[in-house]
Amino acid sequence: MSFRDEFVWGAATASYQIEGAAFEDGKGANIWDVFTHTPGKIADNSTGDVACDHYHRFADDIQIMARLGIKAYRFSLSWSRLLPEGTGRINQKGIDFYNSLIDELLAYGIEPYITLYHWDLPANLQKQGGWQNEKSPEWFEEYATLVARCFGDRVRYFTTFNEPQVFMGCGYLVGEHAPGLSLRDEELMLACLNVLKAHGRAAKVLHNMVVEARVGLTVATTMVIPDTKEDVESARELFFETGKGNYVFMQSFWMDPIVLGRFPQPLLDCYGDLLASVTPGDMALISKSIDFIGLNNYTSHQVGTDANGRPEILTRHRGFPKTAMNWDITPEGIYWGTKFYHERYHMPIYITENGMANGDFVSQDGKVHDPQRIDFLHRYLLNLKRAAEEGVDLRGYFQWSLLDNFEWACGYDKRFGIVYVDYETLERTIKDSGYWYRDVVFQNGENL
Ligand code: GBH
Predict the structure, then answer these.
(1) Catalytically annotated residues
(2) Around Cβ 301, how many Cβ atoms within 10 Å?
């Protein structure tokens, strides 16, 4: 067996990165609107005001997906488009937009996968402390209730959060992402715990209100590749390790409570008091709250074992293959990482993002030739297939991204799409990798 028959081949995007229409039709400002309009925060001084103008061109984009045979579309909702202040007042035009998007997808037989939160918190909620406010789990529950009520008649698949590691790590610790904070360790931990509590509440609402709901949470992974056969244990240990000052970017801090119902012991040892703010009632909602795990993967560490038997990250040789983001190209990581996830959590897994940034442009023949991306995807998918063959419960794969788009602090210079976007004319051109992916989808990966 390789990929199961009903394996879901999809493509992914996120609201702030593609929609544009940032101040149209009653949408409220969110933290990325504020951040991008603050000088010096974005590499090319750009904003998501227009982005790919998907808000007005979604029907064309769905036609492109249909042409490529894409079976599922993972997109996120803009919270402040639906609830301009984050709670309370509802913006009907926002609901109308997502209704049209969902209906159009269904008309083409494309299954919608909704992400509730891909980093764009309503600005009004940030004014009240954002995820540091102990009311934030209630805010998120109110939002999830609206989503379930409006879209739950047609949508079954939801992820609550995209990469809590990144929006908390880069947004609340490193400060390179909105809202640009650098919290102290204890403050950061409490804010992260609010995200977990928010997840628990939203998952309950979705399960209660949506018939046959399938709810997940997506984490960012830097996978691990054992250097030799002797380093498998070291790689596993490094992948799931966590401890004092080392949790926000890690795996087990987020996923252990959600799947196993408890925090890892090293964290209980050093943050016991803070973790106690998660009451048994909170934990009852957080644990066993998901039906699948979403993994986003781009790169990996090479892991060896030092003289004391401890895992160590090995430095790769000079000139090691890299993408335009300068991230190492590491196909085997997706094999090892999904395998380790499977062994620890025994859950269905979707790859909710995988792809690469490349220096794409339109050639003289009017096409976009991106053999590097084809090779990258081919190698990663072969490793994913190997994991599937070895029994990892893989349910689907979403290409990041359908379109070139606003790459957060890097602006528009980095192109991740299988569809090229000309930001002057907003014209779309399917890249060679897009056509290649179509063949993979049609053959369920048998041609890899
Ligand atoms: C995702 O974040 C986002 O969900 C998506 O919105 C975004 O556009 C996309 O990926 C591409 O960036 O220094 O070599 O160890 C990905 C975030 C990427 C964070 C890889 C950690 C490790 C880089 N992660 N990164 S490295």
Answers:
(1) 163, 353
(2) 20
* pLDDT tens-digit map of 303-316: 999 999 999 999 99
pTM, to two decimals: 0.98
Atom of ligand 1 nearest to the CA of 328: 14
| Residue appearing with tokens 């090293």 | 266
CA 195 to centroid of chain Cα atoms: 15
Residue 349's contacts (CB-CB under 8 Å, 6 or more residues apart) are 292, 293, 294, 295, 338, 341, 342, 392, 393, 394, 395
Domains defined along the chain, listed by start:
8-442 (3.20.20.80)
Backbone phi, then psi, for 305, in 5-degree steps? Answer: -130, 130
pLDDT in tens, 136-171: 999 999 999 999 999 999 999 999 999 999 999 999
d(CA 142, CA 240): 32
Cβ of 120 closer than 6 Å to ligand 1, yes or no, is no
In which band, very low, low, confident or very high, does the pLDDT at 1 lie, cut at 50, 70 and 90? low
Give per-residue pLDDT as tens, 366-384: 999 999 999 999 999 999 9
- Strand, helix or coil for residue 69: coil
Q: Name, in order, each residue with C-beta under 8 angstroms of 298's C-beta and a sequence gap of 6 or more.
A: 222, 323, 325, 327, 353, 354, 355, 356
Taking the C-alpha atoms of residue 202 and residue 205, their distance in angstroms, rounded to an integer, is 5
Residues 6+ apart with CB under 8 A from 113: 10, 72, 73, 74, 75, 157, 158, 159, 352, 398
> How many other CB atoms are there within 10 angstroms of residue 324's CB atom?
17
Phi, psi of 330 (to 5 degrees): -135, 75
- From CA 239, how far away is CA 230, in angstroms rounded? 16
Mutate to test the pocket of ligand 1, among 16, 352, 400 (most ligand atoms within 8 A of CB): 400
Peptide bond into 226 cis (omega under 30): no
In this structure, what token pair is assigned to residue 148? Answer: 């379930």
**Strand partners of residue 159:** 115, 216
